[in-house]
Write a structure and sequence with these properties.
alpha+beta; single chain; 562 residues; Phosphoribosyl-aminoimidazole Synthetase, Chain A, domain 2; globular
């Protein structure tokens, strides 16, 4: 057998030749018909997946959130789309079904005998954290939460995973599965099998089955006028996950917000569920991908009631308000707003930024539990004693109604817009605070080695003028400092986002035939999650202007770095 070894990996050259000949004859890669042969991976990394070759484990940790378009439960299809798609489908009726798909509840319930019913649910989403093991834990905690929300006891689970086999190191997939299995073991749930699919984007989750007493089911439709609503985990996982994806996590005194949301998302809702059953709660739902308003609106509509939420009482993760004030609002907020804004009545003083947080898609969020007055306060006390410190009464069922959700504010908590000295829209909030936030970021480019001294070019000029000293042409250190500051400001996201500016930087670097610049900007693009196809397309925009010499220049760089 003809073979060789490259980068420590054995290759069957005869097999590679046979596979590639077949692909070339067909005009399509045999393992991905959308591609021609040789494919991008073979040209850039000398790996033929069709011949069974696999990449070596990465020297540095792979950032999972950079490999997906939408992180966590933001990857789910929004409520409005689901309503349109599922609206015309009639589900077969069965008298044993207690709660089925039309109810839109957290899980389905199926009677299996006197005093017993199955609770069944399934949940799958993309990575919301970079650590594979932690992601597996979160996927499990999120999946089992739907059973807890119905007042049930989870018993068994089937693992579901989508993974780009052959493109990413296999230990990443192993750690995702291991994290999920370990978290299910913590919940007392037996993982009895599963299913995997070779998918371009990583996804993981579980189908979970549990038991519940048919007479003690906690649906989302049974809250009563006068009930108080208790939320057991803070909001903000979607906003902070998005901030981490784009390297814009706010600095807070309490510690790393990303670590905080990771701990919360991986925490089981088991204790909160046990206490709500003991205290005879009326209704429950868990807050996940549709955002708090989406789930509250569903609860209100199902129960034919109106609900009031006090924004100042809703627990939030540290850094969420600052992120929204800086304009860091993910697209899932817009999708959830489109789906649920028809149900919202904003009270006096409620700003767009406040609503952005309430529309934020949560991953493995807390339970929202409806209890009568007195019991709600006791529930919060019990949870605090169990270490669930964020649990709080956040609203009430104001009375019978048509499913309206009124959001009000007491003015006790500073709204996102006030951090900028403006009470404008959330869009204005973002644009007006970007400049201040950028001062906290340190960006370097191929021509800026090391951190600049800070301050804007205008400020530097003012300082020079006030000192009575004109800028001397020979003062190269001052020139370099000002030039680096200028580059730092220009490269910050503004009217153009960071992704677009990075693509432009690649094109301009190729057009300038600056090899260090091209290499630096390609490396940065990869850190931002650019695919090889995106990098090449940006470079070819320059080549279309510069012609064959630029093509030869760029091809030489790609060959030497492959």
């Amino acid at each position: 057998m003809e073979s060789d070894a490259v980068n420590g990996m054995a290759r069957n050259i005869e097999k590679r030749r046979r596979v590639m000949q077949r692909s070339m004859q067909l005009g399509h890669c045999i393992c991905n018909p959308r591609l021609a042969c040789p494919c991008q991976m073979l040209r850039t990394r000398d790996i033929c997946q069709c011949a069974g070759e696999r990449p070596e484990p990465a020297n540095e940790p792979v950032r999972l959130t950079r490999l997906v378009e939408k992180a966590g439960c933001a990857s789910k299809i929004d409520q409005a789309t689901l309503r349109r798609v599922l609206g015309g489908i009639d589900m077969p009726s069965d008298p044993r079904v207690i709660i089925g798909a039309p109810a839109g509840d957290d899980a389905g319930v199926f009677r299996i005998g006197e005093g017993q019913a199955w609770v069944q649910t399934v949940d799958v989403f993309s990575p919301c954290v970079d650590d594979p093991y932690l992601f597996g834990q979160i996927a499990a905690a999120n999946s089992v939460s739907d059973v807890y929300a119905m007042g049930g006891t989870p018993l068994t689970a089937l693992s579901i995973i989508g993974f780009p086999a052959g493109e990413l190191p296999e230990p990443i997939m192993r750690e995702i599965v291991r994290g999920g299995v370990d978290k299910m073991a913590e919940a007392g749930v037996a993982v009895i099998g599963g299913h995997s699919i070779n998918d371009h984007e990583i996804k993981a989750g579980f189908a979970v089955t549990g038991l519940v007493d048919p007479d003690r089911i906690l649906s989302n439709a049974a809250c009563r006028p006068g009930d108080r609503l208790v939320l057991t985990k803070p909001l903000g996982t979607g906003i902070l996950s998005f901030a981490a994806q784009i390297d814009r996590v706010p600095r807070v005194e309490a510690g790393d917000p990303v670590e905080a949301i990771g701990r919360s998302m991986a925490a089981l809702n088991r204790t909160a569920a046990e206490w709500m059953v003991r205290l005879d709660a009326h209704a429950c739902t868990d807050i996940t991908g549709f955002g708090m308003i989406g789930h509250v609106a569903a609860m209100a509509a199902a129960g034919d009631v109106d609900i009031e939420i006090v924004w100042d009482d809703v627990p939030l993760f540290d850094g969420v308000v600052e992120a929204v004030a800086a304009g860091i609002v993910p697209g899932a907020v817009e999708r959830n707003r489109e789906s649920s804004q028809h149900a919202v009545v904003a009270g006096e003083g409620v700003t767009p930024g406040m609503l952005d947080i309430l529309f934020d898609a949560q991953t493995s969020g807390g339970l929202l539990v409806a209890l009568p007055p007195g019991r709600a306060e006791e529930y919060v006390e019990r949870l605090h004693a169990e270490g669930i410190a964020a649990a709080a009464i956040v609203g009430r069922v104001s009375g019978p109604g048509s499913g309206r959700v009124r959001v009000c504010t007491s003015g006790r908590r500073q709204p996102p817009e006030s951090l900028q000295g403006s009470a404008g829209s959330s869009t204005q909030a973002g644009s007006s605070t970007q400049a201040a936030h950028r001062e906290d970021l340190k960006m370097s480019d191929c021509c800026n080695h090391g951190d600049s001294a800070g301050g804007s070019p205008a400020a530097s000029s003012a300082e020079a003028a006030s000192s009575g000293r004109a800028f001397a042409a020979s003062d190269t250190s001052e020139a370099r400092r000002r030039f680096q500051e200028f580059l730092r400001v220009v490269n910050q996201p503004g009217a153009l986002d960071a992704h677009t500016k990075q693509a432009i930087s690649i094109a301009l670097a190729v057009l300038a035939k600056c090899e260090p610049c091209v290499r630096s900007h390609i490396a940065k693009a990869r850190q931002k999650g650019f695919s090889d196809a995106e990098i090449d397309e940006a470079a070819w925009m320059a080549i279309s202007f510069g012609g064959a010499p630029l093509m030869m220049f760029y091809d030489g760089i790609r060959r030497s770095s492959a």
